[in-house]
Specification:
single chain; alpha/beta; two-stranded antiparallel sheet; 8 strands; 22% helix; 24% strand; binds pyrazine-2-carboxylic acid; binds zinc ion
């Protein structure tokens, strides 16, 4: 059986000192590097949050405050600080992440009108990113998922992986939650387990 490692959004803006820093984010990088050393993955995929400067998930582009919510094209949208703007340092992968064995990169969140937490598709379930096609093309049946943030992009990537038919494992030690809402980390783990995600570590 072929397996892939999916590393979600390990980018400067989600790490220490970044525009949308996830507490403890930097601590997962050595763990992820070790996973890649100690396991033989058939594919290693990075996802990269990659927004145009006018992206509607930014509070600044809606005259809102960070933490408020709006309805964006029919779906609730949390208002984030400006982050992972295409071509900026914040959008780059963290320098300590070992990228030697990476076989594929998926950028998401490029359409200014809709956010894309999942590595598989946008939040409206309108456009696929190509990740499922890539994994199916390479006969991947099992995915292990790590990265940032556990309660947003990691959660939706995990639940979409289950929906797309993959045996899906989350490495608890390879992820951190941003927790902009109380108990969001706990709720996210509960949702993933209910969906059929196996939580490791
Ligand atoms: C993310 C909020 C906004 C994430 C991306 O990577 O979890 N969260 N954009
Ligand atoms: Zn984003």
């Amino acid at each position: 059986m072929k397996k892939a490692l999916i590393i979600v959004d390990v980018q400067n803006d989600f790490c220490e000192g970044g525009a949308l820093a996830v507490p403890g984010a930097n601590d997962i990088i050595p763990y992820i590097n070790l996973l890649m050393e100690e396991n033989e993955y058939d594919q290693i995929v990075l996802t990269q949050d990659w927004h145009p400067a006018n992206h509607k998930s930014f509070a600044s582009n809606n005259g809102k405050k960070v933490g408020e919510s709006i309805i964006l094209n029919g779906v609730p949208q949390f208002m984030w600080p400006d982050h992972c703007v295409e071509g900026t340092f914040g959008a780059e992968f963290h320098k300590d992440l070992n990228r030697e064995k990476v076989t594929h990169i998926v950028q998401k969140g490029k359409n200014p009108e809709i956010d894309s937490y999942s590595g598989f598709q946008d939040n409206n379930h309108f456009m696929k990113t190509g990740l499922d096609d890539f994994l199916k093309y390479h006969d991947i049946q099992l995915v292990e998922i790590v990265g940032l943030a556990m309660d947003y992009c990691v959660k939706f990537t995990c639940t979409d992986a289950v929906d797309n038919g993959y045996i899906t494992c989350l490495h608890f030690n390879g992820t951190r939650a941003v927790n902009v809402k109380p108990d969001n980390d706990r709720d996210a783990i509960f949702e993933m387990i209910q969906k059929g995600v196996t939580v490791l570590g």
